[in-house]
Amino acid sequence: MATLAPPLLQLQKDLTNRPYAGGWWPAGDGMSHELLDLMHRWPAELPKIVSYAYLHEDWDRSEDAVPTRYRTRTLILVLADRSSCRLLQLPPDTPAEVAEELFGEATNHHSTWKRVDFVSTFRSPTPREHHVLNADGTSR
Q1: 106 located within any domain
Q2: Residue 48: inside a domain
Q3: Is position 84 within any domain?
Q4: Is the separation of the CB atoms in 37 and 29 below 8 Å?
Q5: Which of 8-17's residues contact partners 24+ apart within 8 Å by CB, and which partners?
Q6: Residue 114: which domain range?
Q7: In angstroms, how far is CA 81 from the centroid of its own chain?
Q8: Which residue among 17, 70, 80, 136 has its CA within the 20 to 30 Å range from the CA of 124?
Q9: InterPro entries of this UniProt entry (predicted)?
Q10: Could you tell me the pTM of the whole model?
Q11: Is residue 85 part of a domain?
């Protein structure tokens, strides 16, 4: 049983960025408010966040098939020491069990997952059922 709930920030100890340096699960969609929350959760012993950007992934059309409500994002934080930190950002309504799975891989610098493995938070209700997602996120 998963015990995770948003808002949540989990980081690798050494911020290797392999595959991510960690994960961030905001409680809502209001980015200015949510980014302030992220900055308050940022560990004091790490360099401060000075700017951020989202990884622009238009070159990879595989994400186009994922409805927005299930699509994860890659948030790049630029830190005061000029290093960067790549975070997997989960949608606010991600189920706790899925967040636990994704955060476990995102914070594991030995993970063999690739970016495509992190693209969606959708999980089929049972492994044997086959669901096709409509553009609005409903299954058919």
Answers
A1: yes
A2: yes
A3: yes
A4: no
A5: 8/99, 8/103, 9/38, 9/41, 9/42, 9/87, 10/103, 10/106, 10/107, 11/43, 11/46, 11/85, 11/107, 12/107, 12/108, 12/109, 14/109, 15/46, 15/83, 15/85, 16/109, 17/84, 17/85, 17/86
A6: 8-118
A7: 23
A8: 17
A9: DUF5994
A10: 0.79
A11: yes
Domain count along the chain: 1
Burial annotation 53-64 (CB, 10 A radius, 16+ → b, else e): eeeeeeeeeebe
Long-range CB pairs of 89-92 (<8 Å, 24+ gap) are 89/23, 89/24, 89/25, 89/26, 90/6, 90/23, 90/24, 90/25, 90/26, 90/121, 91/121, 92/6, 92/25, 92/26, 92/27, 92/28, 92/29
| Residue range 122-136, pLDDT digits in tens | 877 755 555 566 666
Report the half-sphere exposure of 11 (CA within 13 A, side-chain side).
16
Between these two residues, 136 and 46, which has the higher pLDDT value? 46
DSSP-assigned letters across all residues of 4-69: --SSEEEE-SS---SS-SEEEE-SSS-HHHHHHHHHHHS-TTSPPEEEEEE---TT-GGGGGS-GG
- Token pair for 64: 């186009």
